[in-house]
Amino acid sequence: MAYRETEKMRQRKALAREKIINCTYECVAEGGFRSARITRIAGLAEVATGTIYRHFESREDLFAEVFQLATQKEVDKVAEALNTSGDAAARLEAALRQFAGRALRGPVMAWSLLAEPVDPKVEEERLAYRKAYASLFEKTIREGITEGCFPDQNAQQSSTCLVGAIAESLVGPLSLTQPNRENEDNDPLVDAIIRFCMQGLTGTRR
């Protein structure tokens, strides 16, 4: 008789997989992907290292899934800000402020998502999520052009430039070589980033 996996066994496997993902996420939030060693993850998850490879074909596959999970949370927060009330310019400014503010409040995770050297499979996910941000911004820029908030422009190109500008402007402050910024007043930095981005879109000083 062929072996049949019971529902209880499937639930146990699902819980073990979830715990591995959560522990990996915790390691990345504390010290980046470089600190997420398989032996450490296994210890936190209270499983053998071989168990991790029964759920994920490779370390890169595990990291890619954790990257997806972490970045989707940030994309969702930006989407929420873009769905608030106000004209397109106000909503876009709120979304950019959300992006930059959350990054500076969680600098280690933000550095890991934006700039930390990673494996090719994780880098593919990074590029995919940059496109996701750009898509959200593009839609709002198009709405702003229709509303008259923004001058006529190539919304797709502008959104790509916007993602690049805000991400690059955060790399230095988020660098692990910089002092811990979690308890600093980041408002002036965030204001400067927003001012630059909005001036680029509107062509006027703010």
From TrEMBL:
DNA-binding region: 37-56
UniProt feature coiled coil, ranges: none
Single annotated GO MF: DNA-binding transcription factor activity
PANTHER family registered for this protein in UniProt: HTH-TYPE TRANSCRIPTIONAL REGULATOR PKSA, HTH-TYPE TRANSCRIPTIONAL REGULATOR RUTR
Full protein name: Transcriptional regulator, TetR family
Family annotation (Pfam families): TetR_N
Domain of life: Bacteria
Keywords, sorted A to Z: DNA-binding
Residue ranges of every copy of the HTH tetR-type domain listed in the record: 14-74
Gene3D superfamilies linked to this entry: Homeodomain-like, Tetracycline Repressor, domain 2
